[in-house]
Amino acid sequence: MRTAALVSYLGLLVALARGACSPFDENTDYPGNDIGTTAQATAQACCADCAKLPGCKAYVWVPRNGGVCLLKSAADGKYPAAGARAATMIAPVPPLTGSCPSPEANTDYPGNDLGRTQRSSMDQCCNDCEATKGCARFVYYNGDCILKKAGGSKSKYPGATAVSFVPKAPATPAPIVTPAPVVTPAPVVTPAPVVTPAPVVTPAPVPAPTQDTKKCSTIEDNIDYPGNDIGTTAQATAQACCADCAKLTGCKAYVWVPRDGGVCLLKSAADGKYPAAGAKAATMLATVPPLTGSCPSPEANTDYPGNDLGRTQRSSMDQCCNDCEATKGCARFVYFNGECILKSAGGTKSTYPGATAVSFVPKNSVTPAPVPAPTQDTTKCSSIEEDTDYPGNDIGTTTQATAEACCADCVANPNCKLYVWAPRGVCILKSAKGGRAISPGARAATVRDRLPTPPPPPSMVGCPALTDGVDYPGNDLTVTYRSAAEYCCADCTATPNCRGFVWNEATGECRLKTLMGGSVRAPGNRASVLPRTTTATCSQFESNVDYPGNDVAQTYRASADACCADCADVPECTVYVWSSENGGVCYLKSVKGEATPYPGAKAGVYTRKAPPPLNPSDASPVQAAVYGSHPAPAVAFAFVPKAQWISRLESGDIGAIDIFAPFPLPSPEEMVKAHSAKPKPLLEAATNTLYFPLAQSVGECAVMTSSSGYHYFTYVAATQICVVHEFTGGDASTYGLMPAQAPVPMPDVAVPQDFARGSTTAPTLAACAAACEKQVSCASFTYSGTACSFYGPAPSRDGVVAGWVAEPIEWNEVPNEMQYLTMANRKMDLSGYSTTASSATTILACAKAALQGKLALFSFDGSTKKCTLVAVPTKASTTLQLVNYPATPVLLADSRLPSGTTVVAVPSVTTAADCHRACVPSASGCFASEFAGNTCTHHVPAFAKGNTLGWVAPVMLPTAVKAPSAVHFYVNAHQDDHELFMSANLYDSFASQSTKIVMIYLSAGDAGNTNGWYQARESGTLASAQSFVKRFGLYSPVRSTSTATVLGHTITKVTVGNAVHYFLRLSEDAMTRLPSTPAAPIDRPTERYANVAALQAVVVSLMKDEARGIGNAVVNSQQFKEVDHVLHAMAGQIVFDGVAADATLKKCLTQNYYWGYQRWLDTVNMKDPALGTQRTMWWALNRAVVKQYPDQSPWYDHCQALGRQYLALTVPGAGTC
């Protein structure tokens, strides 16, 4: 027993030396205050990292990228964050001499705070109080010791405990006897009588304050009523605010907050409720009028939407009856959440959980018969799904009191396939069924003959049966998004090193994993563990020994025997150590370190067999794939598994980046700064290498490579790093192998000699390609004369891919004029065509000449500056389509290309549309499809360095919305705020053919720069809009630029399809100072805004002009109650105040306000197709910015924030604007 106590004491000393941490706050974040990050597979390991970092007081562990510790200087507030685990550092407990004898349960003494400590036990707070100068009491709540000086009024606070500190009484010192001198004695004086002191009267305890329930409602804890503030007072308790509100004319509600000793926020209304820790809210109660009638028959969980006459707040439902009798025309009321909603007769009964409807019966009247509940017409519509929404795909709204009545409205609209009824009495009609979402009170149903029954999920080939309600934490390889768990199986079996997956019903995420360690309970998850591919054998155990460091992964196993197979599944593992902690943990390690005694641990060694040597005559390892499906562009690429275009085999780093470690992504603070500044460059000049983190697949990496203008890449699945190699230069033409296709030409590319794999002579290009295919190490080759040289990537680990891609066609536009496409280094033999020579000396001029001459094709010789215009011959019943963006090819009906190209027959195609979709330029080099009589052929032009083949894409689609039925506003501080924070809504807006989209950007987004940075950001947002317009194929993507004059301000206006962009261009600094200093736009220094009101007037005027006459108007802006960025909050406040002050917009405009930085690293909550489209859109934005600012990467700064849209506040509106 003594030994055990000694071990326990030594363990405590070690913990204090390393730094001890509090118990975890599960699913919690401590927002802000980040001072560093580390990579750790478990939250427990973060504690030591925080202890080592000076100033670290807390940490939050998040499960991304295998586990990241966010180290923080303070834990200011708590915030829900799924999967996050938070803890604080615990200081050593100081000694205690006094005592804290009398705890007061459910009690607080607001104000007089001296500081806080975190303790697992209330008893330790007493020690902290004694050690803190001036501390007289503490309040213990939720693990916090809130240390306070004397004073303050006692108040009730559920869960809190207040305790006064009593110092130790000082000991009375013994008297010091001084020998008295010998003196002449004085006469004896009779002493005065000793007065007995009056006894100290113990004061009577102060009673806890109570609410005046005759004047104010029952207090709602941890609630705020946002806005409507008309005054403040100082009160130590929330109950005391009631009298202050009663004295202030117009005060209808108050919120008490515990800052500065207690503050009452007095309000003119209680519009909505909002969570606010520590706040206490209540409303004023009107005098209860007399009652002569009765309200005899309450209907539970019932509402009668519409016909509202007014509202009162009552603590008891019975008092609503009095209010109804006193209100002219009142026939019933609905009581919900302390409110009496008074209504006239009429309306249809509907279900509303928690609400109670009661009819009013005047005196001497007969109680009306109950109205039967409505029923669904199940012959036309499906049964109703309760508490269900299907976000997106909205095509219109109607007003109905019940969900059942929406069925007829949806059936009457030929494009409506399902509807969602919202409790406010609105039917939201939808053209398609997106992902299912839980929405309390919402009710959804489908039209039976318009929405086919979804096919059953696919059978899982190679995956065992699913297990419901479990998770396997950690060891994430990558993430895909699927509508059902069964689809994850194919993703896992196609991904190197995937050993299983976990699918989450709420997010649709398939988390593919390298290891499936111990399981934990997780409702809503479905998981499958793949059968092992190894029959691993390991050495005999070494008992009671550890090999610290060199960890590459960990799994949770109840016995050490199970660690061996886990080690075999991890390519880097050669050693493992098992410990019984946490139910059993296998620590998998790359190498043995120095042996250290560790009681109970077991260590083992796994010896890997070397792979057999490659035979040069083996079949080529090159594989091909296509990324993207219609209407997204399809990009073909080739690759070699377990290979890399990185020559240094002994490590994965290139320059400063280790591609086998989590990518050094920016911290939240750095992300915020990047949103207001230029991003960092991602090109390392010394290595000619670009890095793109969080690429979700090798296909996405191929798109990043080709759209950046490069060809070669390395993709690491485990870290999701896409490495793009800038192999430029060289005189010989370089080709990449493409299985089942001709080699892909890649001009102006020189693969480094580090990857040379031999050479030969060949009489033709085809012979050189055939020789490369026979070499197991050859992936690319050069051919010049008869010289044929081979190149191939270096060997690498499982899960690493060396790839190459060549996208030969580029889409171009001339704003306000035209769009055309070019295919560099290609030509047709034009000897069989009618041609016209043009004097144009540039490719652009040549394209304009073709447009003017109404000719589709042109050819431009760069060496001679010769432009040739080509007439396409006609042929009846033949459909010729030239490549454009997928949704809108260049259609030339009754036309053909009779000669001049290589013609490739495409079998098993029965329509012209499918024939054209099979044309993938990056695979075969085709640029046109031809379909006649069920015969499909593709046309491939010849490679000709320096020559450009081009064609005009005439504008055949509308350039704007002619008669919109809806208008969606996006009012932002910066050009990319809506793409980051409101992207799911943005997808729905662009998908609607009858919706006009209006973007209003208040600031220039200049970040203090005057060298073109804001112009680059504007180009980015316009490119993102073009990507949406191209995807849906409803409108022309060619930009139209003009100006609009609003209240004396000239504003740049750019229209892209159904989206109109207004750029107000106030510098960020000037907009920040606008509340006190007039400011002018960057591009128009003489047109000054006098103040915020002047800016607000312009915004309101734009919205009124664009919404006039439209009945479905919505404005989306930024949350402004909790400031994340001063300009975000300013933009949202301008919209909110401006709409509230305008009589028209206040009625007709529905307002949505979205969270920004506060939620941009929360759980991904968007779903496909909006989720995937946001990534495509953001990449288009990134490319447009980089084009003006080479080597800058908005992708790097924001890729980890994609996939989130969190709504903070909605204010409904209705009617025509």
TrEMBL record:
Any single Pfam family the record assigns to this protein: PAN_4
InterPro entries reported in the protein's UniProt record: Apple, LmbE-like_dom_sf, Pan_app
Signal peptide: 1-19
This protein's record includes keyword Disulfide bond: yes
GO annotation terms (biological process): proteolysis
Region of interest: Disordered: 368-392
Transmembrane segments: none
Matching PANTHER family: COAGULATION FACTOR XI, PTHR33946
Name by which UniProt lists this protein: Apple domain-containing protein
Source organism per UniProt: Achlya hypogyna
Lineage, highest ranks first: Eukaryota, Sar, Stramenopiles, Oomycota, Saprolegniomycetes
